[in-house]
Amino acid sequence: MYTSNINDVNDELNEILNRIVSGITSNASKIRTVEKSCCKAHLNKGTISVRTYDEFLQAVDVCKVAFVLITTTVCPYCQLFKSIFAKVAKVYSDRAVFIEANADYVPEIAMVFHVYSTPTTLVLHNGKLVDTVIGYIPYNNFENYVRETLYSIGCISS
């Protein structure tokens, strides 16, 4: 009789411990992992202007996340947005690569990603297109967009 009470207590304790452990593991799966470095190399602060498709491929390969600004020479909104793109690049260039590609000089990039108007900002994650933003974006909106994108991918914490 005494041993059956001990077995009952042991069973209860095991059940309680199992609930605690399952709670810990389910909470652990919700914790965000933030990579210390989303880039393979330390980048200069700012944008990388590419003039060939090979330069573009090399630049995209440097970081897990690439923001690519497609512009043209005669686009007035492109000229306005380039300075905003460059300012945001200075802030986040340790977490992503910021590439500027002029479609007049490197039309292959625009063709590959089906870009038909400029400015267009492409977001690449591990070399694959995950988002496209067409048009001029004010600084605060673009900075928030970049921060949220990097957070969702795990390159920055809140």
From TrEMBL:
Domain of life: Archaea
UniProt xrefs under Pfam families: Thioredoxin
GO cellular-component term (any): cytoplasm
Domain Thioredoxin: 52-147
Entry's Gene Ontology molecular function annotations: protein-disulfide reductase activity
Name of this protein: Thioredoxin
